[in-house]
Amino acid sequence: MMLDAIRDTSKENPEDKLRLLLCFFLSMPDNAISKDDLAEYERALKETGVDMAPFEYAKKCVLASRFADEVADTIGSAG
Question: pLDDT tens-digit profile of 23-38?
Fold first, then answer.
């Protein structure tokens, strides 16, 4: 479904497709999107010529948040 939306040629604005993917990505629980699916979404978006920097930033933020949660869990269970 997401891939179809990204590849939909009737939707001409690549930035709208990027915003859609960002909303989808940020609203999903951890590991709900497979790495393969995410890579495919990224490839499809890159083909539109959109600047992927906002998406790369969002991915880094999500990774940092997950790491912080894991550290907090580890510290909490050690005490």
Answer: 999 999 888 899 999 9
Q: Terminus-to-terminus CA distance in the chain, angstroms?
A: 45
- Structure tokens given for 23: 């909303």
Residues 6 or more apart whose CB falls under 8 angstroms from that of 3 comprise: 37, 40, 41, 44
Q: Please state, in angstroms and rounded to a whole number, the distance separating the CA atoms of residues 66 and 24.
A: 17
Q: How far apart are CA 79 and CA 77, in angstroms?
A: 6
pLDDT tens readout for residues 44-79 = 999 999 999 999 999 999 888 877 767 776 777 765
Q: Taking each helix axis as running N to C, give the angle between helix 14-27 and helix 53-78, from 0 to 180 degrees, rounded to the nearest 10.
A: 10
- Give residue 56's identity as a one-letter amino acid code: E
Provide the 8-state DSSP code for 29: P
Residue whose C-alpha is closest to residue 55's, from 76, 12, 26: 26
